[in-house]
Write a structure and sequence with these properties.
The chain has 185 residues and is mainly beta. 10% of the residues lie in helices and 32% in strands. Strands 1, 2, 3, 4, 5, 6 and 7 form a 7-stranded antiparallel β-sheet that branches.
């Protein structure tokens, strides 16, 4: 007997609310200053009902075929960014206050995120957990199929900016496929 995995219910594109943020460079953290692609927040991208699970989110991401889910965890409490890939984060449990751009950056973005929210984090954008909600906080972390991700802290001597500059942008939206917010930035 085989069991099938249900995909998570995606909010229709015409009802989706998306926020875009350009975040200035701060010290050795490039944020959106290199590719000028914004941090995208898909508010309630997945209908946050009680059936939203990590497995269902992963099944949806796999069905689009652009990204591959690689972990289930919270967000690191230390500022970090990736220089080798863009990252898709989807909250499947709980809520949190998160920071993008570096907490000392006057141009930072602090957001409250909760179950069903998704964030497309361009390479170079620092992010960290500020405070986990009382109900816990877990996400699915995904990267483009075939990509490898690194961890950078803004203290590296290597030229992370060259890695970021060499990255292409997305030819499909990682959640909506052929017509989604990532294609219109």
């Amino acid at each position: 007997m085989s069991t099938s995995v249900n995909k998570a219910s995606l909010t229709p594109l015409n009802a989706l609310r998306v926020s875009q943020y350009q975040i200035p460079r701060h010290g050795r953290i490039p944020n959106t200053s290199i590719q000028h692609k914004p941090l995208l927040v898909y508010h309630s991208a997945f209908v946050p009902d009680t059936h939203l699970t990590a497995v269902a989110v992963e099944a949806h991401i796999a069905s689009v075929g652009l990204y591959s889910a690689q972990w289930q965890y919270t967000m690191y409490a230390k500022n970090h960014f990736h220089s080798t890939t863009h990252e898709l984060l989807v909250v499947f449990r709980g809520s949190a206050r998160v920071c993008f751009g570096g907490e000392d950056n006057p141009g930072r973005v602090e957001l409250d995120v909760s179950k069903g929210d998704a964030m497309l984090v361009p390479a170079g954008v620092a992010h960290r957990l500020l405070e986990q909600g009382e109900d816990g906080f877990e996400m699915v972390g995904s990267y483009p199929v075939g990509a490898t991700w690194d961890l950078c802290y803004g203290t590296e001597g290597r030229n992370v900016e060259a890695h970021i500059a060499a990255l292409g942008w997305l030819n499909k939206d990682p959640l909506y496929g052929d017509d989604g917010p990532a294609l219109h930035v």
